[in-house]
């Protein structure tokens, strides 16, 4: 969303700094459902278009009538979306807006205060601020609406993951360094093999692979190699490395292996991207107590402390959860939440259980109006590579469909809206 705001920054700023002429009367030039577009709005935006034509950002030669028609269509769509956003309850609070403005300021090498000061020199800060609020509101509306309209099937994900495009889109990239001990005759390579083994041992003892490869000779025998410049996907690595590098850990150095050229030693310096993912998970159970029609906030707090003490005195956690918890999802299972990954729980809940040892019971803690007791049953590291691959595939497929679905939706809301265009009519 902020990327979109940044892209639109120069355009919006142009819009913000074009003054509304005092002599304009705010004649209605279009009725759009329950709202109107005023001539002053249109003139401000049209003045901006002329500024951009003069600056060369809009090509010259487009008939002014065509530009006016396109601009009015854009204003109508913005107005329709704004009405929809308001009806949907979408709001951008001041804190969120200030964060966005701070990001825009940083992208233009200014602090928030400097940015505000520059805009205030022409008295345009408030109008620019409200324009960004409007842009963010429409972005939120579009994102929520379009993502609900897009369907990604399991079969689409499977087909994508089997495609060559998937390998290019989601496969990892590597930074690799290597040493080559070349051989002239593969059948007479005993000395080169000894040298490769010696170099490997030196690397294990902390020698720098780039320094060794740059020496060009070791013990009178030639060596080569160095850094394979830049980030490379597996398919762009030298052929003899492709089956080796993907299975390496960062910092790992291979034992010498042979090819037609000689003996190779490879070091994986860095790795990025890809779908390999291991996550820490915690198996938890809890008791939730919250105020209701028959229990006050104070009574809820008293009850959670009473239950905590009963567990400490030896009563079974699961039995108490089945009787007292206000969480219907875990009541039958004695408060069991199953395996939870970081980010699945509310922040205060995660803080409360983060330092627990296996079997340990938390102190009663509050999250909003609710009270909890939690117990850590176990911890594990789970390989979620397959799930991560599917998630990334779904996101890529969703992005591919987004623009087309957005265009369809905008066409639909325009076609179903009441629009009465009065631009060009003579005013009374």
From TrEMBL:
Annotated InterPro entries: OMP_Chaperone_SurA, PPIase_dom_sf, PPIase_PpiC, PPIase_PpiC_CS, PPIase_SurA, SurA_N, Trigger_fact/SurA_dom_sf
Enzyme class at the top of the EC tree: isomerase
Gene3D superfamilies with a match to the protein in the record: 3.10.50.40, Porin chaperone SurA, peptide-binding domain (1.10.4030.10)
GO annotations of cellular component type: outer membrane-bounded periplasmic space
Signal sequence interval, chain numbering: 1-22
Keywords recorded for this protein, A-Z: Chaperone, Isomerase, Periplasm, Repeat, Rotamase, Signal
Main location: periplasm
One Gene Ontology biological process: protein stabilization
Record-linked PROSITE patterns: PPIC_PPIASE_1, PPIC_PPIASE_2
Record's subcellular location: Periplasm
Ion transport recorded as keyword: no
Reactions catalysed: [protein]-peptidylproline (omega=180) = [protein]-peptidylproline (omega=0)
Domain PpiC: 171-270, 279-378
Chain's role: Chaperone involved in the correct folding and assembly of outer membrane proteins. Recognizes specific patterns of aromatic residues and the orientation of their side chains, which are found more frequently in integral outer membrane proteins. May act in both early periplasmic and late outer membrane-associated steps of protein maturation.
HAMAP family for the chain: Chaperone_SurA (MF_01183)
Protein name in UniProt: Chaperone SurA
């Amino acid at each position: 969303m902020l990327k979109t705001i940044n892209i639109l920054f120069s355009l919006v700023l142009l819009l913000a700094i074009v003054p509304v002429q005092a002599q304009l009367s705010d004649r209605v030039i279009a009725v759009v459902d329950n709202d109107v577009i005023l001539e002053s709005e249109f003139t401000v935006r049209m003045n901006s278009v002329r500024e951009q034509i003069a600056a060369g950002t809009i090509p010259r030669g487009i008939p002014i009538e065509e530009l006016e028609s396109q601009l009015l269509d854009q204003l109508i769509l913005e107005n329709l979306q704004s009405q929809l956003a308001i009806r949907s309850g979408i709001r951008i609070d001041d804190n969120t807006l200030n964060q966005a403005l701070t990001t825009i300021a940083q992208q233009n090498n200014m602090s928030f205060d400097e940015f505000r000061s520059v805009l205030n020199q022409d008295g345009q800060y408030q109008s620019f601020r409200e324009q960004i609020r409007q842009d963010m509101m429409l972005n939120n509306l579009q994102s929520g609406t379009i993502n609900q309209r897009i369907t990604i099937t399991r079969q689409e994900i499977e087909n994508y993951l089997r495609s060559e495009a998937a390998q290019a889109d989601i496969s990892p990239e590597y930074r690799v360094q290597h040493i080559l001990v070349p051989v002239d005759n593969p059948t007479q390579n005993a000395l080169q093999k000894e040298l490769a083994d010696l170099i490997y041992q030196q690397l294990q003892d902390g020698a720098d692979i780039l320094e060794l490869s740059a020496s060009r000779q070791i013990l009178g025998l030639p060596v080569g190699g160095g850094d394979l410049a830049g980030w490379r996907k597996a398919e762009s690595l030298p052929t003899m490395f492709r089956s080796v590098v993907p299975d390496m850990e960062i910092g790992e150095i291979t034992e010498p292996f042979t090819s037609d050229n000689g003996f190779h030693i490879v070091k994986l310096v860095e790795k990025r991207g890809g779908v390999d993912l291991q996550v820490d998970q915690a198996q938890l159970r809890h008791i939730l107590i919250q105020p209701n029609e028959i229990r006050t906030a104070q009574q809820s707090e008293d009850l959670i402390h009473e239950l905590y003490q009963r567990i400490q005195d030896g009563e079974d956690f699961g039995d108490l959860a089945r009787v007292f918890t206000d969480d219907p999802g875990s009541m039958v299972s004695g408060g069991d939440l199953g395996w939870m990954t970081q980010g699945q729980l509310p922040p205060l809940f995660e803080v409360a259980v983060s330092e627990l040892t296996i079997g340990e019971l938390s102190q009663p803690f509050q999250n909003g109006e609710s009270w909890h007791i939690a117990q850590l049953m176990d911890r594990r590291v789970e390989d979620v590579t397959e799930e991560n691959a599917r998630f990334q595939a779904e996101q890529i497929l969703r992005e591919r469909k987004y623009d087309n679905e957005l265009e369809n939706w905008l066409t639909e809301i325009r076609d179903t809206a009441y629009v009465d265009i009065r631009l060009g009519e003579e005013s009374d």
